[in-house]
Amino acid sequence: MHNPQLIDKYGRQLTYLRLSVTDRCNFRCYYCMPEEGMDFAARQELLSFEELYDLSALFCSLGITKIRITGGEPFVRAGIMPFLRKLSQLPGLEEITVTSNGTLNAKQIKILQEIGIRKINISLDSLDRERFFQITRRDSFDAVYASILNLLNTGFEVKLNCVVAENKNIQDILPFIELTKDYPLAVRFLEEMPFNGSDSFQAPQWSHHEIYQHIASTHPNLEKLESEPSSTSVNYQVPGYAGSFGIIPSFSRTFCGTCNRIRLGATGELRTCLYGPPATNLRDLLRAGLGSEQLEQAIVEAVANREKDGFAAEASHSAAAHESMSVLGG
Fold first, then answer.
1. What is the pLDDT of residues 67-86, one digit of tens each?
2. All domains of the chain, ordered by start, with CATH?
3. What is the pTM assigned to this prediction?
């Protein structure tokens, strides 16, 4: 049977597709997009749901077994639920997960449950209403928090993604740890990354070392947990707590050696690394009438040319300013 695999020149097999369904979001988090002047893609520039499905099917035929739906905010795109239902029936696809800012409603949660989607990541950078507003530029903390509790009560596996930054939310780190005492959720602390559409980014003051030390100074008896080889986070638990926490060195990039992911942006850009330039645009190839064999070849070629790590990928990128994270799909 003709079944090529997505294996790069360093022997890493790609089995995980991050699929962005929109560049739009109902929040304006400072680390993801500029407050003003965000140029969103016109509707016809976005991949249609049919195109997203056809490309996903192609990826699954190449050995992708897990798809994470990202954005922007996936739930702001009309038609997302029927698309997820159809996607869930793809042969070879073992798991669909979703990343959201938590503004999904009870009806959407119920449909996700029906479809069989069990895991959801919520981006949440503060447990304080005022700081939440300063970070997201939106007054939606109560709705997001209620949504998280609803997901937990409905039996979802919930991860909270928290981007840690000086003068923004350092005082939230320990409250997040306390949240894992009674709730079986996983908090992930991320180093800040240079993806808010500006070109004036400095290395983060709070690297994974500082984050760990800050937590360990209050909880000196942390237990390190086993993680999957391709995990981007180093995971821990406070003994006796229901949940866990992890630290993702997203700027330090210590996890590149086992990276198994590939990214497809909402307007078709295929990226083999978050820090690198797009390898090609699958929307343009699709709309130019290329058949599945030629598309397959473009994907296999992009993977074959993947850089060794995020530093090499960044060095190959001539763009002066880093693009907005809402365009990249996280």
1. 999 999 999 999 999 999 99
2. 16-328 (3.20.20.70)
3. 0.91
